[in-house]
Amino acid sequence: MKFSIPPQILPVVIVLFAGSISYSQSVKPLIETEAKFGKTLQEIGLAKAFYQFFADSSIVFAPTPVNAKQRYAKSTSDFKNLYWEPEMAEISAGGDFGYTTGPWKSADEIKGTDTTWSYGHYITVWQKFNDEWKALYDGGISYNDKYINKPYYKDRNNKSGKLKVENKDLAVIKIHLIEIEKEYAAAASEKGEYAALGKFADGNVRLNREGNFPVVGIEKSVAYLKSKSIYPVFSLMNIVVAPTGDFAFSYGTGTVKGLDTKFNFMKIWKFENNKWKIVLDVMLFLK
Questions:
Q1: Contact in structure between 101 and 123 (CB atoms under 8 Å)
Q2: Are residues 208 and 280 in contact, defined by beta-carbon separation less than 8 angstroms?
Q3: Which of residues 96, 131, 158 is at a domain's end?
Q4: CA-to-CA distance for 153 and 86, rounded, in angstroms?
Q5: Fewer CB within 10 Å: N-end or C-end of the chain?
Q6: Where in the sequence is the domain holding 213, given as residue range(s)?
Q7: Do both 136 and 194 map to the same domain?
Q8: Other CB atoms closer than 10 Å to residue 54's CB: what's the count?
Q9: What are the beta bridge partners of residue 84?
Q10: Where are the alpha helices (DSSP H) in the chain?
Q11: Predicted model pTM
């Protein structure tokens, strides 16, 4: 499910981890949906499978954020040679909102016994509608080498302490998150992206940047961003809040101060210990 590669070679097939990998029962349906998605793509091709598994309000970057359902309704791609597996899956306390991320590889060219591969990491945000999981967002990054999986599945029920969402009004939560995004954007443009992430990220944040394996952990992520020393100007387009009010994802576009550079971004936010923190951050620079 990820695609920084040209649309004509976008593929998808899923390979689940071996049975020795354990995960909670609440996360299991989301992992199983990934497997079903991949099997369906093998059977009917990329465009039809994506159209089937995406929500009506879903988005992809193509290259700027667009409605995924409409995009794949117009596509005729029957490509079937991309393989992915969820390395990490996390689900909300309500069991109806979550995200998955992991490595993908695409067989770009097959000549006899030789195959040319592309590699990367995908991120998909999911929500359950009428007892059926649908993708709200799908995207990711690419890099040059094969990635070694480090499986990590969890849900809110496995966390120590209690989930305390004081106000379950999703509209109020969204307004609050918009203000937090404004604070993040101000810090990033004034002090640098590394400073903003250092203030707002979860300790185990996953940073996704084109050309690199995901950077895991706040210290490594801040160090990586500090080495790049960019001052982004964010333009928030939307925030989608989980029905339980404990997860959300935001997305939009932006520019970089002092550079003729544009980008798309997506962040996954989690509410824990009475604070909203970024658990996954994606920024895709437009060529």
A1: yes
A2: yes
A3: 158
A4: 9
A5: C
A6: 170-286
A7: no
A8: 25
A9: 14, 104
A10: 28-44, 46-53, 68-74, 170-191, 193-200, 218-228
A11: 0.86
